[in-house]
């Protein structure tokens, strides 16, 4: 499926889960705190701004936030929380679309760079971030670590969540470096609802090389937004890349 088909009006209506999941304060607040510190007195640009999960509270901290978003229905949901004057949004692809203005920070959270399904598109996303930043500007990416160590020979799927009313699993195509995330929601009835999304997974070392091709240097990498140490056991990372100040 094309990304435009996945992020349709129905998905947009159900995307927000206030107070739970990725909208839970313990998940969202540390991300907003860190991004606000990195933006400083400058403006921030969010790639794939969606319904404004991060942008709305970040703007509430006094940071001038602009967004780029592929899905008009997602922006419609954002507009129920913030108008165009408060958070301007340009409809387009995060790998090629240019937003007006000057920024000290570009950020791309919650694994969304993996929505770009080729290495070339992911490299262009880095180059597009660099296009919006001056010397010393930062690009922040939050991304999960592929769980290939969990795959014994002959097995192509991993279950990453199993709980009451929800099961999440990933199926891997290691030849193409693709993964499809399957989200099963169910209740006490005999019916279940399935949502699927395709991704291209990226190892941290490959991500660093993409950054170098776009003129960035790795400034820091942590296991979460609170700054926990990134180790071989970490399931995700927050990586901060910076344009050298002397560029």
UniProtKB/TrEMBL annotation:
Ranges where the Methyltransferase domain occurs: 45-137
Molecular function GO labels: methyltransferase activity
Keyword hit for Transferase: yes
Pfam families referenced in this protein's UniProt entry, alphabetically: Methyltransf_25 (PF13649)
Keyword Iron assigned: no
UniProt keyword list: Methyltransferase, Transferase
Biological process annotations from GO: methylation
Protein name: Class I SAM-dependent DNA methyltransferase
Taxonomic lineage from the root: Bacteria, Bacillati, Actinomycetota, Actinomycetes, Kitasatosporales
